[in-house]
Design brief:
about 325 residues; alpha+beta; Umud Fragment, subunit A; seven-stranded antiparallel beta sheet; 8 helices; elongated
Amino acid sequence: MEEKLFWIGIAMGSYFFLSHHFKDKGKFKTDNTFTRCWHALFAGLISFTLIVLLTVSMDNNRGDTVTTGLFTYRQLLLGALAALGGAGYAFWRGATRKAKLKNGLNQNIREDIEWSETVFSAVLLASVVMYLFVQAFKIPSGSMERTFLIGDHLFVNKFVYGFRIPYTKRKVLKFMPVKRGDIVVFQFPSLDPHESQCGGSQYGKDFIKRVIGVPGDTIEVKDGKLYENGVPAGPEPYTQYLDGSRYPKAAGGVSRADYQAFWENRLLGKMFSEYVKDNFGPVTVPPGNYMVMGDNRDRSCDSRYWGPVPENLIKGKAWFTYWPISRIGLPR
């Protein structure tokens, strides 16, 4: 969302500065065709912005938001249709109803300039805040129950792990490292839009899970119980187990090296299906990566199935729930 807002802000800013340029050149002193076209352009920009943001919000509520691209074809198509409709209506209205002149400036253009400045400032500020500092996130599934419930809205602290340089994998000013036990929001680790995981394509979607393994850790699950570096994991009061029985270890003489390679290449879920839920590993978390699992251990499609999460895909740390009011608070 933040990148979409940024480019919408840039478009509005360009309109604002060009409007001042044309105003200084005396282009808006009469109600001519150029003035009506320029007013129609603003109406088209506003219509595009409103429809795209509405569509993105609806996609987000359905859990269909993809963060790897700027806009989807559907969003662009709906936005373009809205822009054409808005621009066409504004031009027709300007042609049939003459705008007044105030202090030598077309009244429609005067209002457009004021609104474009307001939208430019607000949208650009919001995009910077969302990109660098805080992001709102909605829980899409039950994989983190009871810590988070489906439909919970929370804020994600994006600067705690460092500021990401736009359109790069680099982060600067890291205030703290990602630690075992942190609840993180990350982009699903897939480079192929056609790759199927967890029942469908997860390419570009944001996930939320708990870190249970940092670089160098050896992780294993035996009969549903988590082991870290060869010993049972410490108390995990936040976890939830719903299955009364456990899957046995998958048959097959796979060497540890091959198992590690299959895991890092996101193949275990495809090879062993639900068997990795209760009997997984051991694997070693590679440098620059993390292993994550859902707190609802028996209802979570996580690193056991699709491998580690690279650090550059981690967007931030879950901060606090702000909606519904009855669940406001910090995560455990």
